[in-house]
Amino acid sequence: MADAVIVVSLLLVAVTATAAVANRDPARQALVLSVLGLVLAVLFTVLQAPDVGLSQLAVGSALTPLLIMLSVRRVKRRGQPKDGGR
Amino acid sequence: MSRRTRLWLVAVSGTGLAALLVAACLELPPFGGSSHPYGERAVRAALARHTANTIASVNFDQRAYDTLGEMSILFAAVLGCVVLLRQARDEHRARPEPAEVDLPVRRYALIVLPVAVVGGLYVIAHGQLSPGGGFQGGVVAATALHLLYLGADYRALERVRPVGLFEVADSLAVSAYLVLGLAGVLAGTAFLANTLLPYGTFNTLSSGGNVPLLNAAIGMEVACAVVVLLARFLDQAVEIEQGNGKDDKDDKDDKESEKENGKENGA
Amino acid sequence: MHHLLPLLVALPLLGAALLVAGGRRLPRRAAETIGCTVSGATAALAITLLLNSSPPLVEWAGGWVPVNGESVGIMLIGDGPALGMAALASLLTSAALAYSWRYFDEPPRRHAGSFPALMLVFQAGMCGFAIAGDLFNAFVFFELMSVVAYALTGYRIDEAKAVQGALTFAIVTSLGAYALLMGIALLYARTGELAMAQIGRGLDRTAVHGGPDALVLASFVLVLTGLLVKAAAVPFHFWLPDAHAVAPTPVCMVLSGVMVELGTYGVWRVYGTVFAGPGGIPPADLRRVLVVLGVLTAVVGAVMCWYQRHIKRLLAYSTVAHTGLFLIGIGVLTPEADDGIALYLIAHAGVKAALFACAGILLDRYGSVDELALFGKARQLRTVAALWGVGALGLAGLPPFGTALGKAVTEEAVGGALALVYVAASAVTGGAVLRVGARVFLGLGPRPKSDGEYETTGAGERPETRRRLSRVPDTMTAVPALLLAGALAVGTVPGFGGLVADAVNEAGSGGVVVTSVHWTVPGVLLGLASALLAVGLTAVAVTRPALLAAPDRALPLRRLQSGHIGDYVAWLLVGTTLLGVLALPGVLGA
Amino acid sequence: MTAVPHVLPYLVAVWVFLVGCYGLATSRNLIHAVGCLAVCQSATYVLLLAVGYRDGATAPVFSDIEPGSRPLVDPVVQALALTDVVVGATVTALLLALVLQVSKRHGTVDPDELSELRG
After folding, report:
1. How many C-beta atoms lie closer than 10 Å to residue B206's C-beta?
2. Which of B75, B177, C327, C524 is least enclosed by beta carbons within 10 angstroms?
3. Taken in order C289, C295, C296, C297, is the CA torsion positive or negative?
4. C-alpha A61: how far from chain center
5. What percent of chain B has pLDDT over 90?
6. Which pLDDT tens digit goes with each residue over C214-232?
């Protein structure tokens, strides 16, 4: 049972990573990356590494995509100088 | 180099590298094997020092010197981001307009926020017992604080988040970690030696000697570092604007950012 | 004594943390004083440890001294080369901080301490990498020095070139670091250990059926990729000119003077302790890998160096060329060559840092580092001109500079055609620097013309000082003068060469070898030959520019340096595969 | 024996690394390139943890199991991976900061349009 879960999550990691690279739009890529973070966290948990899973969840699926989204926003904001508060 | 040439290069060399790596994978010990000499030694050492979570023991005791390096990377990256994302000569700050937030979003954020912050602190505190620790809890607590941006608005966030203070706290946490390490040298044992404090009762909050202290220092460092990082990026995304043609003079910039920094805004 | 080894890391880090903590209130002068003091104290500590490093020091962080030969802690090495590199890094950091004293670009508002703090963290990273005896720990400090280096390279965010160069540097080096980590993971899978010496023993133990297999080869290739990216060997070198040409001058001094060389040092250390045994990579294969890459690097670096007009970029390419020479030296695997390279490396650090310091003075005084734009403009900077000329001759390897001594010893050890590579590469790079000096400081020859569109000009850069200097401050000339004096002392102080050689041999894997390091007649002649060749090249280039101007033949080579991140990543992959191919015969034969 | 093929986890790590490299080399947007670098790095986590796994073992945390009662997975690789995760996040942050400055100074985040440094 556990083995099947490992195989499935490994394959999911491979697929999501490929999707993250194939998505050429950074905003959408950030979403895929956060999914990748989630899938990795699941994989790490079934590999009996809850510590790493937890930090991957916090970093990979929250922090990194958030930073990317903020950067996308900043880059998009160039050219349209006036913008609202959020 | 044209895109086509580059694609060819990547294809050819990627194939070569892939062949090499796959050949190496076939030589690796089979997945799930049982030979982990270092791992078994680490478990024994952790038990000898009354640390229930072996990973915490490896991170904060056996390989605490690695963690020092890692913490310095985080510290350096924060310092680097502060320097790189400073206000350039030709930029000025624009106060973002306060915006209306949907009530459900606001409620959700304001309810989740304290839960998440407390959860983060809990995860930090129990690092040497259960999965979690300074890193995980620090990131969670710091990210949670930014729910305030979602729930209320940017100015509310700015009031509870004096970035300067967090920077200072960040460096103080780094110093604390270093001082704990240096205590070992002063006591005549080795740097970062976990021999000064009693190891305590197995599986309690104060067990493990130095481990909870180092863990707390890391938790504080990570939390502050992530807050500062996110603050710098939010600054860029929301406040700093290119000085389209106006080319502000330095002193004016100074005044504006001084205002930002003094937090005397009455919003 | 050995308990003090980790202080090489802890001391500068503590200084940096205090600088940041006091950042808001700290006036600029206090921040700079603290920076210089801490950095200097660390340098003093490194030198003290170095003087006590025979027999080599070993420290286990956390006091985890091995029981029955096994430990769970991290090993720090304090032998001659490790502490020598740490001392060199510390001295250069101190020199750079002294150079930037009060004159460097205004710090970010309310962060007066951030530049010295970053430099101190950089110093800590370099020292930590130098004394690491544990492979993962080496990776951690590799990352630390890289991360700080990215931030320092992009420090001048108003400059378009600076941020682009820093980004290129960051992406390529990070990818290299991840390759290094993959290699470490493979080694851990095979041996279950992380300390370098233990991994080496583990490889030998598992290789009972004789020789290395694909796993060893792959881990070797991956680890070397990471280290060679840092060392800037062709074809991993593309980031270096882009980054070093744009980084602030004090940072360039450290980057070119010692950080790049730490990559070469890492190759030497990792091969010697991990892969040198019967279960590792056979010596013949390592020789093939390093000599081929080294010759390629030296040639590409020298040729590209000659065709630059951006002065800092020119110096950066000369660093590439010298990296090639260092790689050849450690690649032939003889104790004599190791000694020679150690001397060469120390003296080169002094000379290169001094030259960058002089280039920085030009930038701050004239707002340009372009050879053509500055033609004849710097006539009144007599002192700087003298320093520049002396530095150029030192780079070319004129006896009695330390560069010449190190080069001569290495040339004798490598022998034959490879010695010619040394003479040619040092002559061409020295000649290029001398040519710049003749044109910029003396205004010799006809006014040169731009010779193509595919190049980076150094004109129109912003000075790094608050405003253009009207007078060159004393610190900015004293620092290069001292550095050059140091490079000269390496070659002239009697007994210094022997000391270095003993320290290197004691740490080497070949057991106790007695080598003699001294000036020989052929060595002096070869040094004179390369210096003369450099002067000759300069004379021709200045008087008859058409003769040596960029011919179209060099254009394909220049087009490779496209500034495109995707290209550089592709080249990194090519280099990794090339490493695999070059080292393959030993694995197939086993 | 296990149902997981012996090399699948390693192959997945290799695949993820190479895919990340491919994306990095062909990227048309620097932010996307930084994302690809993060993908490359996740390969290292997968590889490290796969190396440390052990069939039928449990996490090396003794808050709820008796020491010595069950086999344990390797704690060292987990500590290494943990370090690696944090390093990855900080490097990403620094890279993004540089990308922001590139976008301000060059007005583009397409690497094809950055042509100041060459030759």
Report:
1. 15
2. C524
3. positive
4. 5
5. 28
6. 999 999 999 999 999 999 9
- d(C-alpha C331, C-alpha C158), whole Å: 42
Residues 6 or more apart from C368 whose CB is under 8 A from it?
Answer: C362, C374, C458, C459, C460, C461
Lowest mean pLDDT segment, chosen from A12-16, B139-143, C135-139, C482-486: B139-143
Residue B262 pLDDT > 60: no
Which of A58, A63, A70 shows the shortest C-beta gap to B237? A70
Cβ proximity of B215 and B124 under 8 Å? yes
Q: How far apart are CA C17 and CA B178, in angstroms?
A: 10
- Helix intervals (H) in B28-153: 37-48, 54-57, 64-84, 103-125, 134-145, 147-151
Comparing alpha-carbon positions, the chain D residue that sits nearest to C559 is: D119
Whether C23 contacts C113, CB under 8 Å: yes
CB atoms within 10 A of CB C549: 14
How many CB atoms are located within 10 Å of the residue B258 CB? 12
Q: Cβ contact (<8 Å) for D53 and A10? A: no
Min Cα distance C157 → chain D (Å) is 7
Its ipTM equals: 0.93
Best D64, D78, D80, D105 member to test A by mutation, with max A CBs in 10 Å, is D78
Q: Which residues 91-120 on chain B approach chain D with CB closer than 8 angstroms?
A: none
DSSP-based three-state secondary structure for C116: helix
Cβ C79 vs Cβ C59: under 8 Å: no
Please check whether residue B84 is in contact with residue C154, taking contact to mean a CB–CB distance below 8 angstroms: yes
**Quick one: average pLDDT of B220-231?**
92
pTM for the whole thing?
Answer: 0.94
Q: Per-10-residue mean pLDDT for chain D, 119 residues long?
A: 72 95 93 95 94 88 77 91 91 94 89 80
Return the structure tokens found at C45: 């500590």
C112: helix, strand or coil:
coil
Q: Which residues lie below 8 Å from residue A19, measured CB to CB, with a gap of 6+?
A: A32
> Is the pLDDT score of C451 beyond 50?
yes
Please tell me what DSSP assigns to residue B242: E
- Chain B residue whose CA is closest to D1: B32
Among A5, A24, A36, A47, the strongest candidate for a mutation testing the D interface, having the largest count of D CBs within 10 A, is A47
